[in-house]
Every structure is written in C-alpha cells, then in structure tokens.
Amino acid sequence: MNTPHDALDIVGLETVYDALATAIDKAGPDKAQVFLVKLALLAANALGDAEQFQQQIQAALVNL
C-alpha cells in the first residue's frame, strides 16, 4: 500500500482533464477504449492499492 497523498486542487484536475482529453483524441475512436484500459491499469499500479482502486471504479460508475 502506498503512503497517503494530497488530492489534486482544481487547477491540477483541470490540467489532468485537458491532458486526458488530448490523449483520447490522439488515440482516436478505434483505440480510445484500449488507451483508457491501459491508463487505468497504469494508474492502479501507481496507486499500489487494489481495494482503493476498486472504490474509485465504483465512484466513477455513479450517475453515468
């Protein structure tokens, strides 16, 4: 398990959002889903906590 870290502030979230949108566009419609899965697995590995990552999956599913 990794040590706790600070959450991103609004500027950090906007930066991440912009980078993600650009990368999805760069991947293109045929590869966007594969890109997102790869990114999720890399993020899970960087987080180092499978339970916390599963909680994030559930949070992302809310109100889709």
Which short descriptors sum up this protein?
64 residues, mainly alpha, 3 helices, globular
Could you characterize the architecture of this molecule?
There is one protein chain. With 64 residues, the protein is mainly α. It has a domain at 29-64. The chain is 72% helix and 0% strand.
List the helices and strands and how they pair.
Blueprint: H1 10-27, H2 32-47, H3 50-61
In short:
The chain has 64 residues and is mostly helical.
Sheet of most strands: none
Number of strands: 0
Low-confidence stretches: none
H/E element sequence:
HHH
Q: In angstroms, what is the radius of gyration?
A: 13 Å
Shape: globular
Level of helix content? over 70%
- Tell me the strand percentage band: under 5%
- Terminal Cα span: 29 Å
- Mean pLDDT, rounded to whole units? 94
Q: SS-based structural class?
A: mainly alpha
- Count the DSSP helices: 3
